[in-house]
User: What shape does this take?
Amino acid sequence: MHVLILANGSPPPRDLVQRVAATADLIIATDGAAMKAYDLGLQPHLICGDFDSIDKAHASQLFPAAEIVVAPNQDYADLEKSLQLARDRGATQVTVLGATGGRLDHTLANLALLLSWHRTMTLCIQEANTFLWCLSANRNSPSKRILPTQPDDIISVIAIEPAILSIHGVLWEADHLLLQPGTRAVSNKALGQNVEIELVQGTVFLCLLSSSIRETPAP
Assistant: This one.
């Protein structure tokens, strides 16, 4: 089941919201993003959070058909509460919009959720034409992904810890590269319709910049 979560960062473009919403089985807005959803013409099925950003009555007035899910636990931010809710409702794939922008600590925390949740579900943070995932592997359980691309799409792999990977279908290919945290594998270019990545060890962020991919790919 594909779930769209709208978080309370910088508002995504309206056309992106409508495209992703059209493929989602369930739409969740954090309480802080409820007004953004209204302005974007997005109808959430669920509004989740502690409702410190918007009053429950106001949220119900904006979206009479939405289920209001009050999650007062202050140990977690509203985006993580929404991920927990998506998991409990049966999500297998989650696309998060509005996860970046605004306060830098919020952006970093949202990116950290990729680290802690990517093994639970296929989780993608999307911003305009940019898709971001987290991959992890060890020698007993390598991770091989085929990413749909178009020529000249930009592929970046950013190591969170020392990682060993191979990447093919790009301008600068590599076999069993030891990738340290840093910028070595940033801004590679796709050559054709697919990029193949095999991660043998470590954890990385995988980033695709594409102006031609219209739906969230699942690597």
Remarks:
- Residues 184 and 200 are 18 Å apart (CA to CA).
- Helices lie at 14-23, 34-40, 56-62, 78-88, 104-117.
- The chain has a mean pLDDT of 92.
